[in-house]
Amino acid sequence: MIIQSYYPVIGGAERQLAALAPLLQARGVEVCVLTRRYPGLAAKEIIDGIPVFRLPASGPKPVAALSFILAALVLLKKIKPDLIHAHELLSPTTTAVLGKMLWHTPSVATVLGGGDRGDLSKVKRGKSGKFRAVQISQQVDAFIVLSREIDRELAEIGVPPGRRHFIPNGVDTHYYFPLSPSQKRALRVTLGIPDGPMIVYTGRFEPEKRLNDLIQIWPQIKARYPDASLVLVGAGSQLQALKEQATEGVIFAGRMDNVLPYLQSADAFVLPSAREGLSNSLLEAMATSLPVIVTSVGGALDIIEDGVNGFLVGPGDVTRLQSTLAMVLGSPETRERVGAAARRKIEEQYALTAAADRLRELYDALLSPSEEKHDFEAAQFTLFH
């Protein structure tokens, strides 16, 4: 597994891989992780039974990327993996493509995001962008897509259906589950969150998350529901600016390795992002039976049926965001109905164990005779479309 960053650096891709790796080990896949080394982190350690190698990547972006790719190739030559799985289309997939060229090692690439700021858009920037996109489309054996948006983008650069596999992010439904009202009240006391309606956000504090939109409308929500709280769980480059913009009732909980208590104590979840792949935070919130209010971008369009198992608002549409939040806070019946439907959706289609099973099947197909591989590719295409 090659990924830009890994635990203790926490983001959606990192959390998903950390959750999947032990399940893949249990299914007979020997997993190791290659990632960038950040200051203060060990060059190698074992995390949950998974060897993690952190490689040098310092200096300006082009130099850091080259340094990481070269160090990864040296290590791959020693490890001699049966398969390389890259998470993101930049340095990780470049490394996988070079590994295939050098040693004919099969490669898989997970595309983490789509749209103007997604993986393919980043690849296409610069003078060699089109050449890089062509190389990726031709050399990667299988792409894992998290949304229909990403699937369309891969089709546009010539990746055939048989190499596009819909294996969505998954969530551990035994770990993420709802609490009873009395348990929720007790948990809020433990967390120091006041009584009253509570909306939660979990994730990074970065510009694309558009948390400023949320804080902008909060005074109007607070005026209508004086005892309401907006709890923001996470950290990032926008933290100080958001704190300066925040008004009464906004609580900054800080960076948390375990966000479950905040989800279980909340009444609703909000994700106002300008772009997403398939948000792990969204899946976790749905698994805890929260009604979710999310922007109509990326994988949310595939999983959310507006008004049934969640609510969709246009990115940047602060008026609709405000009215939807107010409606959800004002209707316990709606929260209960939509939250229950959200939990069912996760149990039926987005369980983490199913994602691990399908990844193991994909790996087997890539290492199997061509007849079995074609059968699996046909099944994947049928399931997604």
Order of helices and strands: EHEEEHEHEHHEHEHEHEHEHEHEHEHHHH
Sum up the overall morphology in one term: globular
Strand order of the largest sheet: 11-10-9-12-13-14
Give the percentage of residues in beta strands: 5-15%
Percent helix range: 40-55%
- The CATH topology of the largest domain is given as Rossmann fold
Uncertain residue segments: 378-385
State the CATH class of the largest domain. Alpha Beta
Break the fold down into its secondary structure elements and pairings.
Elements lengths: L1 E2 L8 H15 L6 E4 L7 E4 L2 E6 L5 H19 L4 E4 L3 H13 L3 E4 L8 H6 L4 H11 L2 E4 L2 H9 L7 E3 L14 H11 L6 E5 L8 H14 L4 E5 L5 H7 L4 E5 L5 H5 L3 E4 L8 H8 L4 E4 L4 H4 L7 E3 L4 H12 L2 H18 L2 H15 L3 H15 L1
Parallel strand pairs: 1-5, 2-4, 5-6, 6-7, 7-8, 9-10, 9-12, 10-11, 12-13, 13-14
Antiparallel strand pairs: 3-4
Helix pairs in contact: 1-15, 2-3, 8-13, 15-16
Key structural traits:
385 residues; alpha/beta; Rossmann fold; six-stranded parallel sheet; 16 helices; 14 strands
Short description:
The protein contains 16 helices and 14 strands. The chain has 385 residues and is of the alpha/beta class.
Structure description:
- The protein has 385 residues and is an alpha/beta fold.
- The chain folds into 2 domains: 2-170 and 351-384, Rossmann fold (3-Layer(aba) Sandwich); 181-347, Glycogen Phosphorylase B (Rossmann fold), CATH 3.40.50.
- The chain has helices spanning 12-26, 61-79, 91-103, 119-124, 129-139, 148-156, 181-191, 211-224, 239-245, 260-264, 280-287, 300-303, 318-329, 332-349, 352-366, 370-384; strands spanning 2-3, 33-36, 44-47, 50-55, 84-87, 107-110, 142-145, 164-166, 198-202, 229-233, 250-254, 268-271, 292-295, 311-313.
- It has a 6-stranded parallel sheet with strand order 11-10-9-12-13-14, sandwiched between helices. Strands 1-5-6-7-8 form a 5-stranded parallel sheet. It has a 3-stranded mixed sheet with strand order 2-4-3.
- α11 links the parallel β12 (268-271) and β13 (292-295).
- α1 packs across α15 (352-366) and α8 (211-224) crosses α13.
- The longest helix is centred in the N-terminal third of the chain and has 19 residues, at 61-79.
- The radius of gyration is 21 Å and the shape is globular.
- It starts with a strand and ends with a helix.
